[in-house]
């Protein structure tokens, strides 16, 4: 960590929790920029998975089975 980052982290540690959350929110908004290429890749993947499911080529687990397994833990 650079000294600048260490100083920012130290400042953040001294903030009240609500202000820390505001900093986190601001950072996440800054990092979450739209990426058209990534969106295109995910859209293609979603279509391929949906087509595989609809045609019976995709393995799947019924919802009821997932819930039974989850409730046991």
Query: What class would the helix/strand composition place it in?
Result: mainly alpha
Q: How much is the average pLDDT? A: 93
Distance between the termini: 40 Å
Unreliable runs, pLDDT <50, ≥5 residues? none
Fraction in helix: over 70%
How many β-strands, per DSSP?
A: 0
Beta fraction: under 5%
Whole-number radius of gyration? 22 Å
- Give the helix tally: 4
Report the principal-axis shape. Answer: elongated
Q: What are the secondary-structure elements, in order, as H or E?
A: HHHH
- Largest sheet, if any? none
Tell me the count of domains: 2
Describe the structure.
The chain has 73 residues and is an all-alpha fold. The chain has two domains: 1-33; 36-72. Helix content is 77%, strand content 0%. The protein contains four helices and no strands. The longest helix has 20 residues, at 36-55. The two termini are 40 Å apart. The model has no long low-confidence stretch (mean pLDDT 93).
């Amino acid at each position: 960590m650079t000294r600048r980052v260490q100083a920012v982290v130290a400042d953040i540690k001294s903030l009240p929790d609500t202000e820390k959350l505001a900093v986190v929110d601001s950072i996440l908004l800054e990092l979450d920029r739209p990426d058209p290429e990534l969106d295109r890749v995910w859209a293609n993947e979603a279509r391929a998975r949906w087509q595989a499911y609809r045609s019976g080529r995709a393995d799947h687990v019924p919802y009821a089975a997932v819930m039974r397994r989850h409730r046991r833990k």
